[in-house]
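Hi support team,

I submitted a single chain yesterday and got back a structure, but I'm not sure I'm reading the token output correctly. Could someone confirm the output below corresponds to the sequence I sent? I've pasted both exactly as they appear in my results page.

Thanks,
R.
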Amino acid sequence: DIQAEGLKKSFGNFDALRGIDLRVKRGEFMTLFGLNGAGKTTLIKLLATLTSPTSGTLSVYGYDVRKDVNNIRSVIGVISHDPYLYDNLSAFENIKFFGTLYGLDDLDNRARSVIKQVGLEKRMNDLVRTFSRGMKQRLTVARAIVHEPKILLLDEPYTGLDQHGAQIFGEMLSDLKSHR
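Hi R., thanks for writing in. Yes, this is the structure output for that exact sequence:
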């Protein structure tokens, strides 16, 4: 559940968001459309607790974005333009690192499972710096779902994905929706 009332985000004199009201219920998908500069990424950053609102209220899964940052981060997965991966680590090491941040048990098996899910099992031990943009985006999906988040925030998730990666990602989204 995501709820916003009168949500505003300003950067100096520029209002990136002006009084957003929204509610997204469990199991729903919401898509934002708009021109570049319309505030879509700003809203995602607010939901992901990467920035704070200037005014208004915002809660994610019942947690207030101003007070419950760690709780929110434990229930969300974020896929954005930046893969937030470490180039000098292998795919497996990256996923294990992020799994450790979430305090996951049976981390080796979970890391292998999500890497296989995104079709990168054959490259699991290769350094991320050797990956194509599409492969990095697939690994970003694995990073975002390693802790089985309740909410996925997607900011242009198909950017850089090849046809096979896009198909895998689409199937994953359908699968996630059917299990909610």
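A quick pointer for reading it: Residues 44 and 153 are 7 Å apart (CA to CA). Let us know if anything else looks off.

Best,
Support desk
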